[in-house]
Automatic annotation (TrEMBL):
This is CLA4. PROSITE patterns: PROTEIN_KINASE_DOM, PROTEIN_KINASE_ST. InterPro entries: Kinase-like_dom_sf (IPR011009), PAK3-like (IPR051931), Prot_kinase_dom (IPR000719), Ser/Thr_kinase_AS (IPR008271). It holds the Pfam family Pkinase. SMART domains: S_TKc. Belongs to the protein kinase superfamily. STE Ser/Thr protein kinase family. STE20 subfamily.
Length: 191
């Protein structure tokens, strides 16, 4: 396993079906973790790798946390600033849904080549995440309704309305997922 979805500067942008496949497989991995009450807390394209068969693997479990009956929420600010959920930045209690926010930011990263606020220094980015709410897309008119709806349920500032990984796996956005073989050109140039 050696290729992340965005590691490289001279590749053509990913298509929505390719993004849908990578995000769906990442969501499956997150659901596996969440079913075991584990929060990853650092989901971003650098921590999602594809092998030569286009199998998607989540890596870098250094910020993981286990939720228990006695400690069903966390409040520590950990992760990579640009992908952090607002509740993490504000050091409020949070649960598995912080990974869903980060998955939404990773989706934007694959669409636009970078996460929102990357041109800002990390402290300013944290401030913007905490105050601006759901980030704006650079060119929403170029995107399908399915991906925009998917992002809207991932990037819901009110956690009560943010989707779970279980709910996301039934989202119509994943109906457009490509087949693993359709990622071979993406993986070819990275050899």
């Amino acid at each position: 396993i050696e290729n992340s979805p965005t590691n490289g500067s001279n590749h053509s942008p990913l298509s929505e079906p390719q993004i849908a496949y990578i995000v769906r497989e990442t969501c499956r991995g997150l659901k596996f973790l969440h079913d075991k009450h584990i929060i990853h807390r650092d989901i971003k394209s650098d921590n999602v790798l594809l092998d030569r068969s286009a199998r998607v693997k989540i890596t870098d479990f250094g910020f993981c946390a286990k939720l228990t009956d006695k400690r069903s929420k966390r409040a520590t600010m950990v992760g990579t600033p640009y992908w952090m959920a607002p509740e993490v930045v504000k050091q409020r209690e949070y649960d598995e849904k912080v990974d869903v926010w980060s998955l939404g930011i990773m989706t934007i990263e694959m669409l636009e080549g970078e996460p929102p606020y990357l041109n800002e220094d990390p402290l300013k980015a944290l401030y913007l995440i905490a105050t601006n709410g759901t980030p704006k897309l650079k060119h929403p008119e170029l995107l399908s309704l399915e991906i925009k709806r998917f992002l809207s349920v991932c990037l819901c500032v009110d956690v009560r309305y943010r989707a779970s990984t279980e709910e996301l796996l039934h989202h119509s956005f994943f109906d457009m997922s490509c087949e693993p073989k359709d990622l071979t050109t993406l993986l070819e140039w990275k050899k």
